[in-house]
Specification:
Strands 1-2-3-4-5-6-7-8 form an 8-stranded antiparallel β-barrel. The termini are far apart. The protein is built from 1 helix and 8 strands. The protein has one domain: Lipocalin (Beta Barrel). The chain is 15% helix and 61% strand.
């Protein structure tokens, strides 16, 4: 009985600790990057955070898209964005590591064959 209370208390501590210590990504972030085809682009990320859930948008010259399945745990940020190219939807999977006012992303196009990296910086 005593061990189960101890384990339950520890599990609660870990859950609260992870939520409290999640990186704060709320607000606008800007990234300039090179795509797999060699083009230079800029994206603006607007994040809203509630607990571990991340919502918001990603805006670029190709328009604005909603963040899907967004999540932040500690300093790990992940979400998906679906973009339409010529009538075809393409899913982009973002996995990022937050460090202060920077997020280093690895972005994979849903076909899994194309991956590129980008760094977003908090807008001042």
């Amino acid at each position: 009985m005593r061990i189960s209370r101890l384990l339950g208390g520890f599990a609660l501590f870990v859950l609260v600790f992870a939520t409290v210590w999640a990186a704060d990504v709320s607000g606008k972030w800007i990234s300039e990057f090179t795509t797999p085809d060699g083009s230079t682009r800029q994206s603006t990320f607007t994040f809203e955070v509630s607990g571990e859930t991340v919502t918001g948008t990603v805006a670029s010259t190709r328009g604005e898209n909603k963040i899907e399945e967004g999540k932040i745990v500690g300093d790990d940020l992940s979400f998906n964005v679906t973009r339409n190219f010529g009538g075809n939807d393409m899913k982009f999977v973002y996995k990022g590591k937050v460090a202060g006012d920077e997020i280093k992303f690895a972005v994979t196009v849903a076909d899994g064959e194309r991956t590129f990296e980008m760094t977003a910086k908090r807008a001042k």
